[in-house]
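Q: Sequence in, structure out?
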Amino acid sequence: MAGETQSDCLFCKIVAGEVPATIVRESETTVAFRDINPQAPTHVLVIPKAHYPDAASLAEGAPEIAADVLREAGRVAADEKVDGIGYRVVFNTGSGAGQTVWHAHAHVLGGRGLNWPPG
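A: Exactly. Output:
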C-alpha cells in the first residue's frame, strides 16, 4: 500500500538502514544519496521515506512530501555547487521511461553539459 514501507523495496531498505548508501542529506521526510551508477559528476537520488511507487502516486497521495522531495533536490544542487551552473531534476515513471526501482525518486544531475532533448 502507498505510504507504507515495502519489505521487498530496495529504497525502503535504504531508508531503514538495512542496505548501505552514501547519504548526502536527510530530512524528516526524505533521504538523498549518491546513485551507484552515476550518469553525471553529480548524480544524487532524493526519495521520500514513505513508499510511493512513482512520482504521480506520490503527488496524489502526499503532495506535501512531493514538495519536500523537490525542495531537497534544490538543496542537494546547492550543496553540490551545481545550482549556479545548472542542473536537472528527473523523475522516471514506468519501465519505458527507465524506472527500475518502484519507489518514487528524483534524480539530481549536474556538473556537466546536459543536452536537450535527453536521450
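The CA atoms of residues 43 and 108 lie 5 Å apart.
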